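Q: I'm writing up a methods section and want to include an example of the input and output format. Could you take the sequence below and give the corresponding predicted structure tokens, formatted cleanly so I can copy it straight into the document?
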Amino acid sequence: MLWAGVGFVLLIGCVNIANLMLARAQTRTGEVATRLALGAGRRRVGAQALTEAVVMGVLGGLLGLLVGWAGIEMLTRLGAADLPRGQEISLDGAVVLFTLILAVGAGVLFGAIPMVQLMRGDLSPVFRTENRSGTASRRAVVLRNGLVMSQVALAFVMLIGAGLMLLSFRAALSVDPGFEPEGVVTGFVSLPATRYPDGDARRQFWDRLRQEVGALPGVERVGLTSSLPFSGNNSSSVIAPEGYVPRPGESLLSPRQSVVSPGFFDALGIEIVEGRAFDLQDGPEASQAIILDRWLADRYWPDGDALGRRMVYGAIPGQDSIPDDALWTIVGVVETIKHNDLTAPEAEHVGAYHFPVAQASRSFLTLAARARSGDAEALTPAIRDVLAGLDPELPFFGVQTMESRIQESLAQRRIPLVLLGVFAGVALFLAVVGIYGALAYSVNQRVREIGIRMAVGSEPGRIFREVVLRGLAVTGVGLGVGVVAAFFLSRLIESLLFGVRPADPRVMAAVAGVLALVALLACILPARRATKVDPASALGS
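A: Here is the clean output for your methods example:
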């Protein structure tokens, strides 16, 4: 998608250059004819045009590299490192060489073609007529209008893509993750096996950490987990109800697995749907307890009677004899939450289950603390002080708020959105320049004609409307082509969209309105210039 965006912008720029160079070549007809008549070879004149195109391409390429360097810095701040191979994005020698070759090649191809066509033609009529009408040939007008139409159509497609990605991003942001991320700071703590060799030592440390952080003045709730949502720490394992017999061909589920402490669900604002959360009674000597999410509970007990049932973990379900340490009693059901991707479809959800930290101790956990008020990150120094008091050698690392973790998860949508937005803005600017340039050149070529019409009584308002309508007609045809192209091309990015249709009428109408408005503004300036033509000066020129 991004390569297509780059290609479209490059193509629009090249079309604009071709249009401007075509107009420039027509104004240089007399110069080229005179030079050839005085003995200059066509090859030498062509070499000059080629040199101009190369210089233009090199300067444009250098400017593009400068803008590209600034763009890479911007993307880095937006989280480009979180994309696949994002840390490898750089402006290296290969990129510089590729950019310069592409810029020079495009400049030569689209900049020199009009001059080459001019030199191949018969320039003798230039000396046989004064050619004072100032009007361009019908073929040249059709070619320029066609180039402008193509610019409008390509800009329309680019703006449609950016608009669809914007609506998609807004839809992703509006998704409920199933918990309340606001005001929660999180960070990782890892216990070395040399100082915490067994489950008892780890349990004692986690209990003290949770209690002392929870006693801080700014902390409302605190909890620990082995698998924090949107942290990248994921674990899954097969689990099934006691006595469950899979249907023929059915695979056993492997839901997400985590270990959580008392207070964790409150800290993240995860709703308890049925039963209770873990508390201090779920110790190492108590009966083994487990909490399922709503999706997993409904999967096996759609009537809602999951409480008190037992799940088999660490043994094969359906066996005649299941060891006691493989049976876990369901004490609660919590709301289903999003774990890694806000836009993940429901069909990809496989459920989740949670063990109490006192019964399934881990050496690596994530602490989540909800602030009473204000900035959650302000709790970090106090949490580090608590951790240093328990064990000075343990760092509190990977510190982020839950909101920032969710934002990072959207990097693969946010960065393409920003890039497409930039591409669309450039495309819109180039399309406006193309429309304005074509109309301004047309008015300049028709100065004598307009002067004659005004001398014989034609009203300025009529000339103004004629110029504007001519520009809007070209824009309208370009929009029509763009609508057809966007209808097909937008379906190519359908897999990247979320919560929006590829042919969304809101985006179509908004983009068409924006393009029509800027096209109208681009038409007004040349039209006003046409109404201010002095008949006496025009007839005397």
